[in-house]
Amino acid sequence: VQLAESGGGSVHTGGSLKLSCVVSGLPFADYCLGWFRQVPGMERELGAIAGIDSDSTTYADSVKDRFTISQERAKTTLSLEMNSLEFGEAAMYYCAAANNCFGLEFYGMDYWGKGALVTISS
């Protein structure tokens, strides 16, 4: 199983960044994909900030209308386009897959990438 994030980096407040995640080897045919984040020094947020399940997308209120999640055909690559980034959104961003989800909550068997670091300067 491989989930490998890329695209992290440093931007100024209000800037944009696009994260990508290569997904392969998942042991189930149907699964949810999503992006989670963990602010340094804090617990990883329990729910995804953006999720996609059978082409249906869901967003946390905090990122709605600024972030866009998408996947390429065959679910081999998951992306997260982030616009109007806020200073407090500097975090490690993780790509995750699970065989069961309800909205932004992932259940059952889950797999995680190692994360992509996003730093934001004022």
Descriptive report:
With 122 residues, the protein is an all-beta fold. The chain contains no helices and eleven strands. It has strands at residues 2-6, 9-12, 17-24, 32-38, 50-53, 56-59, 67-71, 77-82, 91-102, 105-112, 116-121. The strands form two sheets. Strands 2, 4, 5, 6, 9, 10 and 11 form a seven-stranded mixed sheet that branches. The protein has a four-stranded antiparallel sheet with strand order 1-3-8-7, with no helix packed on it. Strand 7 and strand 8 (77-82) form a beta hairpin. The chain is globular. The model has no long low-confidence stretch (mean pLDDT 93).
Quickly describe the structure.
With 122 residues, this protein is an all-beta fold. 0% of the residues lie in helices and 57% in strands.
Topology:
Blueprint: E1 2-6, E2 9-12, E3 17-24, E4 32-38, E5 50-53, E6 56-59, E7 67-71, E8 77-82, E9 91-102, E10 105-112, E11 116-121
Parallel strand pairs: 2-11
Antiparallel strand pairs: 1-3, 3-8, 4-5, 4-9, 5-6, 7-8, 9-10, 9-11
Strand content: over 45%
- List the total number of helices: 0
Amino-to-carboxy terminus distance: 37 Å
Helix proportion: under 10%
Structural class: mainly beta
Q: Which sheet architecture does the biggest sheet show? A: 7 strands, mixed
**From the alpha-carbon coordinates, what is the Rg to the nearest angstrom?**
13 Å
Roughly what is the average pLDDT, rounded to an integer?
A: 93
Question: Which regions have little confidence, pLDDT < 50, spanning 5+ residues?
Answer: none
Q: Given the C-alpha coordinates, what overall shape results?
A: globular
Helix-strand pattern: EEEEEEEEEEE
Q: How many β-strands, per DSSP? A: 11
